[in-house]
Automatic annotation (TrEMBL):
Keyword Lyase: yes
GO molecular function terms noted in the UniProt entry: orotidine-5'-phosphate decarboxylase activity
Catalytic activity entry: orotidine 5'-phosphate + H(+) = UMP + CO2
Superkingdom, taxonomy of origin: Bacteria
Alphabetical UniProt keywords: Decarboxylase, Lyase, Pyrimidine biosynthesis
Stretches assigned to the Orotidine 5'-phosphate decarboxylase domain: 31-275
Pathway: Pyrimidine metabolism; UMP biosynthesis via de novo pathway; UMP from orotate: step 2/2
Lineage of origin: Bacteria, Bacillati, Actinomycetota, Actinomycetes, Micrococcales
InterPro entries assigned: Aldolase_TIM (IPR013785), OMPdecase_AS (IPR018089), OMPdecase_type-2 (IPR011995), OMPdeCOase_dom (IPR001754), RibuloseP-bd_barrel (IPR011060)
Full protein name: Orotidine-5'-phosphate decarboxylase
Amino acid sequence: MTTSPHDPQTRSGPRPRFGSRLVEAIDRHGPLCVGLDPHRELLERWGLPDTAEGVGELCSVVLDAATGRCAAVKPQSAFFERHGAAGIAVLEDVLRTCREQGLLTVLDVKRGDIGSTMAGYAQAYLADDAPLAADAVTLSPFLGYGSLAPAVDLARATGRGVFVLVRTSNPEGGEVQRAGDPAVAHRLMQQVGRDNAGQEPCGDVGVVVGATLDPVGEQLDLEGSLAPVLAPGVGAQGADEHDVARAFAGARGRVLVPVSRGLLGEGPDGVGTAVESWAQRLAGAVGDP
Ligand SMILES: O=c1ccn([C@@H]2O[C@H](COP(=O)(O)O)[C@@H](O)[C@H]2O)c(=O)[nH]1
């Protein structure tokens, strides 16, 4: 793995745990997480070809605009994978650049499988020598929360984290996540809370909870779980900073708010201003612990 003077592991021994690094980044820059979703229409709007090279160019402009202005970056793996090996190479470059520029990365891959295969995914994204190593990845618990253990264990061993899908921002999510009594989402939240026990103020096992949801209807125990929260749905999906403030008051200081289309739609000339403006809007919502 390419190392950098900005990677905490290379500066002073083992990398501090993910929850601590996240709280520090949010404390310094606020909760904005710049979403990197270089889809076809976006590339077109930016005047770039729908190729791996186009994706690379867009990402390079966005990372320069994001550096020093936000807590983290969330590349959406799908939009790199669709270009095959060349797209994956761009994703490797993006993750390396983020390490070098001091940006935390949440790689949105939504992986989940039986334990032995899960160990393979964990090696792919959470091992120190993995070409696609990120600070955290998103995981799907559909095969059972326990099946995610190889990823949770490796993340902890390497100072990294995971974000488990608990209550997603899409309207179809409730069909599965609200089923049962207590609902699936509540039970997942409890399991996450058990894994984070004793890790005040913020654990390494995070949750994905959409900012688009009705907070009254959900009432998940965000506070007691100590989970870092990834809260998608702001911007293009309709939620705003007021929804974020209402839904995540119990998790202040450990909420990351990814914004992608709502920010990148401004095009290459407006991206710096758009990052600054979203950073300001979200800072007051859930920025300080
Ligand atoms: O519940 C979820 C989980 C993940 N996502 C992902 O976040 C971004 C949202 O993009 P926007 O353009 O800011 O709407 C995208 O990568 C999704 O796959 C989500 O939206 N909801």
